[in-house]
Write a structure and sequence with these properties.
heterodimer; A: 5 helices; elongated; disordered N terminus; B: two-stranded antiparallel sheet; about 0% strand; globular
Amino acid sequence: MNIVSSSPQKIHPHKFTLWIAIGSIIMMFAGLTSAYIVKGEQPGWSTVVVPKIFYYSTGVILISSLTMQIALKAFKERSMQQYRSLLTLTAVLGVVFIAMQIIGFKQLFQSGVKLEGGSGAGQFLYIIFGLHALHVLGGAIALLIMFLKAFSSKIRNYNSVPVEVISTYWHFVDLLWIYLFVFFLVKS
Amino acid sequence: MSNEALHGHPEVVTTHDVHHDEHHVHHHKETFITKYVFSQDHKMIAKQFLITGMIWAVIGGLMSVLFRLQLGYPDQTFPWLEDILGRWAKGGKISAENYYALVTMHGTVLVFFVLTGGLSGTFANFLIPLQIGARDMASPFMNMLSYWFFFGGSIVMISSLFIQTGPFSGGWTAYPPLSALGDASPGSKTGMDLWITAMAMFVVSSLLGGLNYISTVLNMRTKGMSMTRMPLTMWALFFTAVLGVLSFPVLLSGFILLLFDRHGGTSFYLSDIYIAATKTALPNEGGSAILFQHLFWFLGHPEVYIILLPAMGMASEIISINARKPIFGYMAMVGSMFAITILAFLVWAHHMFVTGLNPFLGSVFVLLTLLIAVPSAIKVFNWLTTIWKANIKFTPGMMFALGFVSLFISGGLTGIFLGNSTLDIHLHDTYFVIAHFHIVMGVSAFFGMFAGIYHWFPKMYGRFMNNTMAYIHFWVTLAGAYLIFWPMHYEGLAGMPRRYLDYTGWESFKQFAELNKFISTVAIIVFAVQLLFIFNFFYSIFKGRKLTKPNPWGATTLEWTTPIRPGHGNWPGEIPEVHRWAYDYSKDGRDFIPQTEPIGPNESHH
């Protein structure tokens, strides 16, 4: 008899949905990076030097992953004061990351890498890093909502699922960034 | 049970969320807005998808009637066309530009908005919670968003019909450079921007829906409902969602790059182009239009199965119920659907055999493409053996399910021709291709959809559809489908290319003038019969024969254990527990044994 377990150990549907969504986002970036590989073999391809600031933004997003993890731990231990401040810190780091990406784009743009004209790694860089930044922004907005919820006096929230969902997503955009960054370092 | 699954640990969770939801299930007073418009009930969302899809089907079908008029009667004028289409049809004849717009929109609308949104949107939403025993989807809110993105995309797509430069006119596959250059044609201007916007919204809708379907099927099944006890509809809709979730994002990345080529001046798809209309040479270099084709068909081929799998699943279920026999080879059915899902991702380049693809690579794709014949044949074999020596009840649903099998065989066989890269040199872009995909994924998916509508209409609205109208609908549509598309194979074999406005100028295609007239006439008749179906649908919602018992077809599955008109939450009391698979028909001298009945001590093994 193979009866499906109804035990509470089963993964929560919302967490599971997130994992599938992550699969879906991976497919999107896989599509873009394979387009990069295909195009890199065409004539007229120009490479690009990745600005230094992207190394620093990598550091920022790595730290934000760490703060997110500690925030989750704090939530589970019900130390709400610590949770709220770490959540805020994570969101701020996320915004700093996006700002650094934009500065990176500006530097790249000023160094003469434009969207217009012949094909090259720069065109992909703007779009791929830009889309990644949008995904970080989505995460930051979700953090903001969590933040507002955490300060609401009416509702006392003991359900850790939303916090776990957002933290998994946050680690994912972190890992995604490392993949994309290494990809660009290797390919250009 | 489902509430527990939905909220994790109910004894721990004390947010207002839970209270809110339990209200919802039992006695929440709903306003008109929350019940019919921004509903989070999967059954209502399903009906919204269905009716929006039907409106789209009428629009898309009417477009085909209009361009079939041109193809069947290229030398005649129809002054009334100018009355309804205005400058699109000056002097009663559709202009070349607008003919392409009609063809393009017909394809886009039917592939995406009817047979993807309308088909899996309707039946995944309606059937998944009901058949696996859940109160609703994993996230009813996302589910609602899924519909409203679909609706928004629909509005944007429709609005492109009314702008001055007209809708996009470069074919539903939107190949660059026609899709990437505003100066390429009138339809490539604002029409294309609206097209991309609408499609992007559609992709978001599909993803939101698909995520929900997958996590609902995997996580929210009722007690006892193991994966292998699920009806085949569930497996089919599950694989459909997996395909969509993994392939639509790739299409979206293709669209994003396209958008930058259109407005950012990038060269992803463009290279060395001189536009005659504006007498300018473009600065773009190094782009590759073939890259778009790769990204497009990486979705495009799975899309075929996104359309077809729900029809396969529903046909399996309906055939088994009305044959009063267990489905033949349940695990083989599941396995073949799994094989189709995997292969769907590995065959996209067979749409690109003549793009200069490396012939060796081509031969690999030929092999993988022809491999799909194996799971397809297994499925056909299983349907046929299910009805073998069965005491068949010819309900309208069953008629359409059998019609689906017939069309799937006829259309599938010509796929073997087209899957060969050598034959494709002759057959690509001819009417042979048109005939093939219209039969195998267009009409047959429609038949699956009709089967589903006739079969589950009683569950949706508590009434039956009218049988007489249904039988007329079935026979005319089946005969009509073959009469329309069968002759097209001959035209295609003779090399008649698709997407041409007028064939009278070619000596080799002139011979088909009468045949084209015939095809157009039948197409008009078939379209008229679809209006009869629409009438039947809406008439029966209000005036159809009422259900007197909750399980009119004598089916084993869970949806028929709900009240005739289930509320939000589906089961008024506990969700039933499942003790057996979904296909115990004609077993141990009993007509059928519901899934909820425990296995008896002396019961035989299936």
